[in-house]
Amino acid sequence: MVKKTSMKDIAQDVGVSIALVSYVLNNQKENRISKEVAIKIREAARRLNYQPNQIAKSLKTNKTYTLGLIVADISNPFSSSLARIIENEADKFNYTVLFGSSDENPQRLQKLIDTLLNRQVDGLIIAAPEGSEAQLTALQQRIPFVLIDRYFPNLSTNYVALDNYKSIYTGVQHLVDSGYRRIGLISFATDLFHVSERKRGYRAALKDNQITISKAWINELGQATYTGEMAKSIQELLSGKQPVNAILFASNALALHGLKQLNALGVSVPDDVAVLSFDEAEAYDLFHTPVTCIRQPLADMGQMATRLLIDIIQKNNRTTQVNLDAELIIRASTRPVQTLATAD
Amino acid sequence: MVKKTSMKDIAQDVGVSIALVSYVLNNQKENRISKEVAIKIREAARRLNYQPNQIAKSLKTNKTYTLGLIVADISNPFSSSLARIIENEADKFNYTVLFGSSDENPQRLQKLIDTLLNRQVDGLIIAAPEGSEAQLTALQQRIPFVLIDRYFPNLSTNYVALDNYKSIYTGVQHLVDSGYRRIGLISFATDLFHVSERKRGYRAALKDNQITISKAWINELGQATYTGEMAKSIQELLSGKQPVNAILFASNALALHGLKQLNALGVSVPDDVAVLSFDEAEAYDLFHTPVTCIRQPLADMGQMATRLLIDIIQKNNRTTQVNLDAELIIRASTRPVQTLATAD
DNA sequence: ATAAATTATTTAATCGTTTAAACAGCTGTA
DNA sequence: TACAGCTGTTTAAACGATTAAATAATTTAT
């Protein structure tokens, strides 16, 4: 390996002090430095292929121009799409991104936070796992951070998230408007606020349409253990006393598994049952019927979170909380019921 | 924000020199340091919530314990799965991962390399874009790196990749063995070695089975511009003078678009045409027929690349080149032809 | 011609660590 | 009693930059 060029090398090459090199290469004190020397220094820097040592710079300035991104699992498309957007946005402001996956585990989150803080990141963007309130509270006096996707209503932190209540409400209203009144929900068993908001939106929309929810319609599966549970849930929804004619999946992972099960059971969409999914996925394209979905404004979310964080780092101001609206993409899986018009 | 505790703070608190604090917290000179002082120092470190400043450490030791990962696009499932595996593996050795997306663009690659080098990463893992040979050659004397997924046969670099020739050969042989002899290939128009190896494997397997390839069977699409081209390609393959009865897709992105088109055209798989895909994707699960595919050993690839890189960083030895074998996952999309047995 | 003002450059401290070398206080031995 | 050899600890330089303050060199004003 070839040794890297430092300012010292340039200073020696040109025959000036290190300070002068620093001033020239950082375009400081421009009117005080003789043109000829400045040119010589720049020429030497180019010739010796000088690359500033960001580590040394950071030690002195206490800024690393690095952001930490903590997602649940970088291999999940939701996380990796977000990562890509954040990477791009950060790059515009000359920031680099360090990432880590928390696996929805608060201990692992704490470990990542410590690692990233040791590396002196300037700020963090976090998709917080369930039960991480204590960590986040402690973090507030250590470093600027912005929560993304999920937040805790009783914690006064910066966040950029979706208005989950409204999004689901709109989706359910669309189902009702399309003639579906027996609507099942398949969601996660979790206390995460954004998930419970989805349930709340579902309940409210049905209530506002004078539809009484049967208990059997709400299915909450344990994280990770889907496959078996999903099959059971779907069969129960379709065969109970009050079989549903529409199913709302509360996330893309759930929808993916759900659609797979519908395929396996030979259920026809939307003739046997309509399907509405939270989140979009390229995978849905391969399903026999295009799937209506609630599309999150991922690009906005990532960009806003990144800009907000950089803003806070640079100006150190206020707490900002953003709730974005989702977009309902209507496709054939929620085709209006033909047989009879809605009672409405 | 609360000021971070430094070794100086601990030293003052306990009333010893900074050096002693360093020795104790790094478990050095253990037999030379009095137990009582060591205990006091550790206690103070805990009490003041000391976290080492990795930046200062790095400046002194010239090691950042950071790896740079450059993929084509972190939002692509192939890249993000790899990223997750590399993150996990690196973590085992106390390394952190900085990532960037090159967008298959050598200029952008160069920019990322410079940024990552400024940040003094200890090594790089790179999925190299087409036309980046010059950059990589120059990089060889700057920093240790390992190529992943793709490599250049005329460049003597470390790499961990797939034996693409063999993988495709095996896949085609399976098609032939299942009774398909008119096999189309849909691939990318690119000079990347790993892609051309796939074509070579396809050709060789057909030749070895005494099958003459019709020119029309090989379709190479421009990157990114699929959708239109894909529809055209598939229609031509299915309707030419020598219509194919099997299609081999050279990547998961191609397969995804291809399957979508097959759906749109109402083509039945495998009755009208068999389908074999390179790479696996969760999305395939939603296709009406389970898809036979060539599964890359992603976990092995990521782990080996990471370990190899760390090994090189720490011991600075030899050039290592690894070609891994793929696994053929046989599913219904290549069900053996029923009507007549193979001539063989 | 000399002081004052301006211009160009250097000195030196600093960021938070690491680590070789120096030093101080003991103990044991010749 | 002197000094060699331990043990425990400190000193100080270094990593590669930044930057306030000092200094040197030149020009302008008087």
TrEMBL record, chains A, B:
HTH lacI-type domain residues: 5-61
Annotated Pfam families: LacI (PF00356), Peripla_BP_3 (PF13377)
Key words of the record: DNA-binding, Transcription, Transcription regulation
Gene3D superfamilies: 3.40.50.2300, lambda repressor-like DNA-binding domains (1.10.260.40)
Protein name: Substrate-binding domain-containing protein
Segments forming a coiled coil: none
Keyword check for NAD: no
CDD domains attached to this UniProt entry: HTH_LacI, PBP1_EndR-like
Keyword Transcription recorded: yes
Species: Fibrella forsythiae
Organism classification: Bacteria, Pseudomonadati, Bacteroidota, Cytophagia, Cytophagales
